[in-house]
Design a protein that fits this description.
The complex is a heterotrimer of chains A (161), B (293) and C (792). Chain A has 161 residues and is of the alpha+beta class. Chain A is built from five helices and five strands. Chain A has helices spanning 25-32, 88-95, 105-118, 124-131, 142-160; strands spanning 4-10, 13-19, 51-54, 57-60, 73-75. With 293 residues, chain B is α+β, with helices and mostly antiparallel strands. Chain B has helices at 14-24, 37-42, 78-83, 85-90, 93-98, 104-109, 112-118, 124-131, 149-152, 228-234, 241-254, 265-292; strands spanning 7-9, 28-31, 50-53, 63-66, 69-73, 135-140, 143-148, 153-155, 158-159, 166-173, 179-186, 196-204, 210-218, 225-226. In chain B, the strands form four sheets. In chain B, strands 4-5-10-6-7 form a five-stranded antiparallel β-sheet. Chain C is 29% helix and 26% strand. The longest helix of chain C is centred in the C-terminal third of the chain and has 28 residues, at 551-578. The chains are: A alpha+beta (161), B alpha+beta (293), C alpha+beta (792). Chains A and C meet through helix 2, helix 3, helix 4 and helix 5 of A and helix 1 and helix 19 of C.
C-alpha cells in the first residue's frame, strides 16, 4: 500500500493523516479524523449528505481525494457547531422540524452556511434551487425551506446588531 | 464504491504537468474539479494508474476578454462563470449555461475544462462551445494547438485530445451588439442533465430578416449537433413566428436522437422542435430588444 | 395485574399528548453527533464486500477464489459452499392456501437469479482492499433466459425462476362476498379500469449495513444493524445462525431512513454474522449505493384491473378486482403478504358489499420485492380511480360519484365485505371539508375557461382509508403470518430518573419525543424528564417493531398504558405515605402529588422523588403486599385494525406540448385521531406525500429485457428534490379511536396512498379533453406525450 503522510486543516486544526492517495476525503474525515458528522450516502456526488466546505465553498467530500486538500481549509458540520447550543441554522431546523432521520442534515447545514453568506436574503425559490442538491427522503423539504428562511432572518439580524 | 489504486501527482506548473503526461500517457488522467471523473473512479469505470491534479496550476484560472472573443482557463469553476459580470456582458449564454449545471455544490467545484473534456453530449458547456465556435487550446510537451469545436467533440465522452495533451483554455466568440441568443432545455428534475437542450444566436438585418444564425442541439446524438445546413438555408429568411415553427420542425425531422430509459427517441424529437423554437424566439426577442436599445 | 384498559383512557384534554414539542433527538443529529452504523468505531474490524452476479439468470458452474485470497489485506473469501453449511436456509412456507413454499439459502451456489444476486463475499482489513480483491473473484456462469415481467413469467414455457416450484405463479388466491353476477345483471353499466404501479425502491439516504461482533468466551453475537424491528430480527438471526435467541443481541444505532427496507435480515447480513462467528473477529459491512439500488428490497410493481357494476347515478353495485404483482426473484416475505392486504382494504371508505378479488403473484428475475412505506398504496388509486372512470363513463361529476358511494356517518361502524370494520372514521366530513377548502366549484369554472385558452388544469381527489395499526386478529383474518402486539416498559430509578422503552425502533420517525410525551402524560411529569431508549434487544422488550404506521398506536399507546399503570402504583405509595386509605383523591402532575380537597387541587409536599426513594430504599413503608421498585411492563395487542382517514386534493397544470406535470396546489384533510405530537405528525404527512408524488411522477426502477438493472445511481433512480416537492396545506381533524389508548390511530403511510391517487387522478382530469387516460405510473412526460400523440 502506498500510504502517504500529509497534513489537512480541518475545522481550523492541523491534522496529520497517513492514507493512500485514493482515500476519499469523506472516508479520511470519518475514519482517520473521527469526524463522523459528514455522512456518506451515495459516493457519486448526487445525494449531498457528505457536503463539506473547502475554503468556504461547498464540496462533495466523496468526490475529492483527501490528499488533494493539503493547503486548503476544510470545515465540517462539527466545525459549524458552537461549543454550547446550536447555530442559528441548526436552531431553526430544530424549531421547524426540518429533519427526521437526520442523515442528510449535516450536508444541508454545510451547504446553507455557505449559501446564506453569499445570499443573506434568499427567496424560497432560491432556497429550493440550492436545496435541490441535497436529497432528503423523510421530510418532503417544506420544513427545511421554512427553517432556512427563518435562519436567514435571524442571521441577518445578528450581523446587523 | 471505492476507487482503484493510483499514484498521485500534483504538478505546480503546466510544464511539470505536461512532463508527467508525456511520461504516463493514457495510464494517466488529469483531474480538475473531479465532479465527473471521481464518480467514474468510485464505480471503477475509470481506473487511471496516475492521477495528475492540475488544481495547483495558477495560470489556468483566468477569464480574459480579447478582441471579439473570451478565453476561459480550464480551471475556471462553473460558479465563476455563473457570476462573472464581464461574461454577462460579453457572452451571456455562458453564465446562462453555467447556472444550469447540476447543483450548487457541484458548480462550486466543477470546472469548464473538466466539463468540456468529459464531452457529455447533453451537457451545457459542450452545447455552448458548439454554438459559440469555440477554439480549444490543447497543450502538450510538443507545443500548443488549437482545435475547433466541430473537431473537438468526437463522440460520447470522447474528444480530440491526445493522451499527452491538457486542455488549458477555451476561446469562445463574444456576442456582437446586433446578436440575440436563446437557450432552452428540458430535464425531468432541476439539476438533471437535460433530455434535450437547444441554443441559438441570431442577428437580424433590416426588416427583420436573418443575417447570421447559429443553432445547436444537445442530447440528440453522440456530440452536440450544430444545424449547419439549416443555418445556411435560413439566411435571408424573415424571422417570423411561422419561420420559427418551420425551422424547428425541419430540425426535428433531421436529427436522429436515441431512446433510453429517460426518454424515447420520438419524445426527444418532439422536444427538439419545442426547445429549438423557444431558443429561436428568445434569440429573436433579445435581438430586437438590443436593436431597440 | 391487569392494568389500565385502553378504552378507559380517552380524555377531553391532555397535558402532554398533543403538544408540538420539538424533538429530543435533534440535539445530537444537528451537531453531527448522531451515531449511525458507520459511526461506530470497532478496533480491528474487518470489512466485507460482496461479489454479485452481473447477470439476471445464470447457472453458476464454478468459482476461482485463489487470486482473491492471495490479494493484500484479504482474510477470507467465501461462497455459499461454506456459508450455507454454517447457516440455515430461509424457509417461507406458512400454511396458506395457494401460496407455494419457498426456500432460500444464505448465498446461491447453483444459480444466480437476478442482476446483483450476491454470490461470494470477500473479507479484508479495509473496504478499499476488499473491493480490490472482489474484482479478483472469478465466477463461471452459464447464461439462462431471464423472465423480466409478470406476463413473461406466466407465459407457457417460461424459464423457472425457482426450479423447485411448478411454475412462476408463486401465490394465487381468490375472495368473493355477495352476489357479483346478480349485481352485474342489475347494473346500468359495467365500467372497466386499469391501474399499474412501477417497480420502486425505498431509498433511505443511509444504505443498509451491519457490524457483527462475536464474543467467543461468552459465545455471544452482538449485531449492530439499523433495524425497524430489532426483536423479530434477532429471532431470525438466531434461527439462521443456529444460535439461541439469548446468544444474540441486536443493537440498532441511529438509522438514516428505512421505509420498510430494514425489517428483515438479508443474506448479506447473515453472511457477515456467520463470518464474524467463524473468524472470531469483528466484521463490518456497509452497503454502497449501487448495491442498495440493485440488491436491497424493491417494491410495488403491482397492477389492478377493476370491473365496477354501477347504477345510473354512479353507485357501485359490485366491484371485482384482479390484482397482480411482480415479486422478483426471491421471497423475503410470503408472496401474498402485500397483495392480500390490498385486496382486504381495497374498497376503502365506500359502501360496497358485493366484492370479489383475485390475487396472482409471479416470480421474475429481478431483485426481490417486499413492503415499502404504504405497501397497500395502490388501493386508494384503484378505488378513487375507478370512481373517476365511472364519472367519466356516466358523465357525472367525480365529486358526486364519491358522495353517492361514500360511507356516511350513519353507516358507522361499517363492516367492509372482507370483514374489516370501519369505526371512528370521518371520510365524508373530511371530503366535504376538502371540497370547500379547495374551492371545488370555482376550480371547475376556471378549469373550463383555461381549457379554451389551451391551458390544461386538472383536479385530483383521493379519499384514503389508511390501515394503521394491525392487530394480531388482522394477520389471522388475512391469512398472513405475524403478530400485532407491542410491548413497553417504564422504569423510575431510585433518584426519580425516568426511562422507558418499547420494542419498536425508529428510523427517522421521531419516536423519542412523542414517546416521551406519552409516558409523561401517563405519569404526570414533564416529557423532558423522560429518557426513551429504543433498539437494543437486551434493553427493550420483545415487540413487533416499526412497520405499518403502528408507531404511535402500538408504541405510544403501550407506553402510555405502562406509564398509567406505574402512576397507579405511585399513587398507591403516595396514599400510604400520606396516611390515606385510598389514592382516589390523588393525582400526579408536574412530578408532584396533588390532592383534590374541597373542589380544588392542592399540593401534598410529596414528589415523584420521594415515592421513588421509598419504593427502592424504604420498602417497609410500602402498602402491604406491594413489591419494591418502580418498574412496569405492558404488552398490548391492538384491535384487529385501526383506521385513519384523509382526503387529498391535488391541482395540476399539464403542459400538453412537453407532457410535463406541475403541481399548483396540494391540500390534505386528515383525521388520524388523537395526535401525540402535531409537529411530528405533520412532518410524516408531508414526507409521505412527497414520497408518493415521487412515485407518481419520477421514481422507476428500470430493468431491461435481459434483466439488467439500469438504475445503479441516484441520477438514474430519481426521487423528488426540493424543487419538485410542493408546499402542502394540511387541515386536521381529530376523532379519537374508542379502542386504543388515548384514542390514537396512527398515520405515516396515508400520505403516499393519497398522493398516488390524487396526482394520478389530477393528471387524468387534465387529460380529459383529449379523451385519453393514464393507466400506469410513473406519469413521465414521455408517457404523457405517448398518450397525447395518438390523439393527434
Amino acid at each position: 500500500m502506498n500510504r502517504i503522510a500529509f497534513t489537512l486543516t480541518v475545522n481550523a486544526m492541523a491534522c496529520e493523516v497517513v492514507a493512500e492517495p485514493r482515500k476519499l476525503l469523506s472516508d479520511v474525515l470519518r475514519e482517520d479524523l473521527r469526524l463522523t458528522g459528514t455522512h456518506v450516502g451515495c459516493e457519486h456526488g448526487v445525494c449531498g449528505a457528505c457536503t463539506v466546505l473547502v475554503d468556504g465553498a461547498p464540496a462533495r467530500a466523496c468526490l475529492i481525494f483527501a490528499i488533494q486538500m493539503q493547503c486548503r481549509e476544510i470545515t465540517t458540520v462539527e466545525g459549524l457547531t458552537p461549543a454550547e447550543g446550536l447555530s442559528p441554522l441548526q436552531q431553526a431546523l430544530h424549531e421547524e422540524h426540518g429533519l427526521q432521520c437526520g442523515y442528510c442534515t449535516p450536508g444541508i447545514i454545510t451547504t446553507f452556511e455557505a449559501f446564506l453568506r453569499e445570499n443573506p436574503k434568499p427567496t424560497d425559490d432560491e432556497i429550493r434551487e440550492v436545496l435541490s442538491g441535497n436529497l432528503c427522503r423523510c421530510t418532503g423539504y417544506a420544513n427545511i425551506v421554512r427553517a432556512i428562511r427563518k435562519a436567514a432572518q435571524i442571521m441577518r439580524k445578528g450581523t446587523a446588531a | 464504491m471505492k476507487p482503484a489504486k493510483f499514484e498521485y501527482h500534483k504538478p505546480e506548473t503546466l510544464d511539470e504537468a505536461l512532463t508527467l503526461l508525456a511520461e504516463y500517457g493514457d495510464e494517466a488522467r488529469v483531474i480538475a474539479g473531479g465532479q465527473s471523473l471521481v464518480p467514474m473512479m468510485n464505480i471503477r469505470l475509470a481506473r487511471p494508474d496516475h492521477l495528475i491534479d492540475i488544481n495547483g496550476i495558477d495560470d489556468l484560472s483566468q477569464i480574459r476578454l480579447e478582441n471579439g472573443s473570451v478565453a476561459i482557463g480550464a480551471l475556471v469553476r462553473h460558479r465563476e462563470i455563473e457570476h462573472s459580470a464581464q461574461l454577462a456582458q460579453a457572452c451571456p449564454p455562458l453564465p446562462a449555461a453555467a447556472c444550469n449545471i447540476g447543483h450548487y455544490a457541484l458548480r462550486a467545484r466543477g470546472t469548464i475544462g473538466g466539463s468540456l473534456a468529459l464531452a457529455d453530449p447533453a451537457a451545457e458547456f459542450p452545447l455552448m462551445a458548439t454554438l459559440l465556435d469555440a477554439e480549444f487550446v490543447a497543450r502538450s510537451g510538443a507545443g500548443e494547438r488549437s482545435v475547433p469545436s466541430h473537431e473537438f467533440f468526437v463522440s460520447v465522452f470522447t474528444t480530440a485530445l491526445e493522451p499527452e495533451e491538457i486542455l488549458t483554455a477555451v476561446r469562445f466568440r463574444t456576442l456582437a451588439q446586433s446578436e440575440g441568443w436563446g437557450f432552452r432545455w428540458f430535464s425531468r428534475r432541476v439539476g438533471d442533465y437535460a433530455l434535450v437542450n437547444a441554443a441559438a444566436i441570431v442577428a437580424l438585418k433590416d426588416e427583420g430578416r436573418i443575417h447570421r444564425i447559429a443553432m445547436v442541439l444537445g442530447g440528440v446524438g453522440a456530440t452536440p449537433v450544430r444545424l449547419t445546413g439549416l443555418e445556411q438555408e435560413s439566411v435571408g429568411a424573415e424571422a417570423s413566428a411561422g419561420w420559427v415553427r418551420e425551422i424547428s420542425s425541419a430540425a426535428a425531422a433531421r436529427v436522429e436522437p436515441g431512446g433510453d430509459k429517460h426518454a424515447s427517441a420520438e419524445y426527444r424529437r418532439e422536444l427538439v422542435e419545442l426547445l429549438l423554437a423557444g431558443a429561436l424566439e428568445d434569440a429573436i426577442d433579445r435581438c430586437r430588444g438590443r436593436q431597440a436599445a | 395485574m391487569s392494568g389500565v384498559k385502553p378504552e378507559d383512557t380517552a380524555r377531553d384534554g391532555f397535558d402532554q399528548i398533543g403538544k408540538p414539542v420539538p424533538r429530543k433527538e435533534d440535539a445530537r443529529l444537528l451537531r453531527g453527533k448522531g451515531t449511525y452504523l458507520d459511526d461506530i468505531e470497532v478496533p480491528g474490524a474487518l470489512h466485507a464486500c460482496f461479489v454479485r452476479s452481473p447477470y439476471a439468470h445464470a447457472r453458476i458452474t464454478g468459482f476461482d477464489l485463489d487470486e482473491a485470497k492471495a490479494a493484500p489485506g484479504v482474510v477470507a473469501v467465501v461462497t455459499g459452499h461454506e456459508v450455507n453449511d454454517w447457516t440455515n436456509a430461509l424457509k417461507m412456507a406458512p400454511p396458506i392456501e395457494g401460496l407455494q413454499p419457498t426456500e432460500m439459502t444464505t448465498l446461491p451456489v447453483d444459480k444466480a437469479r437476478f442482476h446483483g444476486d450476491p454470490v461470494a463475499c470477500v473479507v479484508a482489513t479495509d473496504r478499499y482492499l476488499a473491493e480490490d480483491a472482489a474484482e479478483l473473484v472469478y465466477v463461471e456462469y452459464d447464461l439462462l433466459d431471464a423472465v423480466t415481467s409478470y406476463d413473461a413469467a406466466l407465459a407457457d414455457g417460461a424459464p423457472l425462476v425457482d426450479e423447485t416450484l411448478p411454475s412462476n405463479l408463486v401465490s394465487h388466491q381468490k375472495f368473493e362476498a355477495g352476489d357479483i353476477a346478480r349485481r352485474k345483471a342489475e347494473a346500468y353499466r359495467v365500467v372497466e379500469a386499469a391501474f399499474a404501479m412501477q417497480r420502486m425502491t425505498h431509498l433511505p439516504i443511509e444504505t443498509r449495513g451491519c457490524i457483527a461482533l462475536w464474543d467467543d468466551g461468552r459465545a455471544h453475537l452482538t449485531m449492530h444493524i439499523g433495524s425497524q424491528a430489532p426483536h423479530p430480527m434477532r429471532s431470525m438471526l438466531a434461527g439462521r445462525l443456529r444460535l439461541a435467541e439469548h446468544q444474540v443481541t441486536v443493537a440498532s444505532p441511529d438509522v438514516g431512513g428505512a421505509f420498510g427496507q430494514k425489517i428483515i435480515v438479508y443474506r448479506e447480513e447473515i453472511t457477515v454474522a456467520a463470518l464474524a462467528c467463524r473468524l472470531k473477529r469483528p466484521v463490518r459491512w456497509r452497503e454502497d449505493r449501487l448495491e442498495n439500488l440493485s440488491a436491497s428490497l424493491q417494491a410495488r410493481e403491482n397492477a389492478v384491473k377493476t370491473l365496477a357494476a354501477v347504477a345510473r347515478d354512479g353507485r357501485i353495485l359490485s366491484l371485482e378486482a384482479e390484482i397482480t404483482e411482480d415479486f422478483g426473484a426471491y421471497c423475503f416475505y410470503p408472496a401474498n403478504y402485500l397483495a392480500r392486504v390490498i385486496g382486504m382494504i381495497l374498497t376503502g371508505p365506500y359502501r360496497i358489499q358485493d366484492y370479489a378479488f383475485e390475487v396472482k403473484i409471479a416470480l421474475t428475475n429481478k431483485c426481490g420485492a417486499g413492503p415499502m412505506r404504504a405497501p397497500m398504496a395502490i388501493t386508494s388509486l384503484v378505488m378513487d380511480g375507478t370512481l373517476d372512470a365511472v364519472a367519466r363513463e356516466l358523465d357525472i361529476d367525480p365529486a358526486e360519484v364519491r358522495r353517492v358511494n361514500m360511507v356516511r356517518p350513519s353507516d358507522l361502524p361499517y363492516v367492509m365485505p372482507t370483514g374489516e370494520k370501519l369505526e371512528d372514521v370521518t371520510p365524508s366530513e373530511c371530503f366535504e371539508r376538502g371540497l370547500e377548502e379547495i374551492g371545488y366549484a370555482a376550480f371547475r369554472d376556471a378549469q373550463e375557461a383555461d381549457r379554451d385558452n389551451g391551458i390544461y388544469r386538472g383536479l385530483g381527489m383521493c379519499n384514503v382509508i389508511e390501515s394503521t395499526t394491525y392487530g394480531s386478529a388482522f394477520y389471522k383474518a388475512a391469512g398472513i403470518p405475524g403478530s400485532g402486539h407491542e410491548a413497553a416498559w417504564v422504569k423510575i430509578e431510585p433518584s426519580g430518573a425516568i426511562r422507558a422503552s418499547a420494542g419498536l425502533m425508529g428510523t427517522g420517525q421521531s419516536y423519542e419525543t412523542p414517546y416521551a410525551q406519552a409516558v409523561a402524560e401517563g405519569l404526570g411529569v414533564d416529557p423532558a424528564q423522560v429518557d426513551v431508549v429504543l433498539g437494543n434487544t437486551d434493553i427493550s422488550p420483545y415487540g413487533m417493531g416499526a412497520r405499518g404506521s403502528r408507531g404511535a398506536t402500538a408504541g405510544g399507546g403501550t407506553l402510555f398504558l405502562a406509564a398509567l399503570d406505574l402512576k397507579a402504583k405511585m399513587l398507591d405509595i403516595a396514599a400510604a405515605l400520606l396516611g390515606l386509605n385510598s389514592p382516589s383523591e390523588l393525582e400526579l402532575r408536574g412530578g408532584q402529588v396533588l390532592r383534590h380537597v374541597g373542589g380544588a387541587w392542592s399540593e401534598t409536599g410529596l414528589g415523584l422523588g420521594d415515592i421513588a426513594r421509598t419504593a427502592y430504599m424504604d420498602p417497609l413503608k410500602l402498602p402491604e403486599g406491594m413489591e419494591p421498585g418502580l418498574e412496569m411492563h405492558r404488552a398490548w395487542d391492538p384491535p384487529q385494525m385501526t383506521y385513519s382517514n384523509s382526503t387529498h386534493f391535488c391541482a395540476v397544470t399539464l403542459d400538453a406540448a412537453t407532457g410535463r406535470v406541475d403541481i399548483d396546489r396540494y391540500l390534505i384533510v386528515e383525521d388520524c385521531g388523537t395526535v401525540l405530537n402535531p409537529l411530528v405528525v405533520e412532518g410524516q404527512q408531508q414526507g409521505a406525500t412527497v414520497m408518493g408524488i415521487g412515485g407518481v411522477l419520477f421514481e422507476h426502477m428500470v430493468y431491461d429485457e435481459s434483466g439488467q438493472n439500469l438504475c445503479g445511481t441516484l441520477a438514474d433512480y430519481m426521487i423528488p428534490t426540493a424543487c419538485e416537492a410542493p408546499e402542502i396545506e394540511i387541515v386536521s381533524q381529530n376523532t379519537p379511536n374508542r379502542r386504543t389508548p388515548a384514542g390514537i390511530k396512527g398515520m405515516a403511510e396515508g400520505g403516499i396512498m393519497g398522493a398516488i391517487g390524487a396526482v394520478n387522478n389530477a393528471v387524468n382530469d387534465a387529460l380529459r379533453p383529449f379523451g385519453v387516460v393514464a393507466e400506469r405510473q410513473p406519469l413521465s412526460p414521455d408517457y404523457i406525450r405517448s398518450l397525447l400523440r395518438v390523439t393527434g
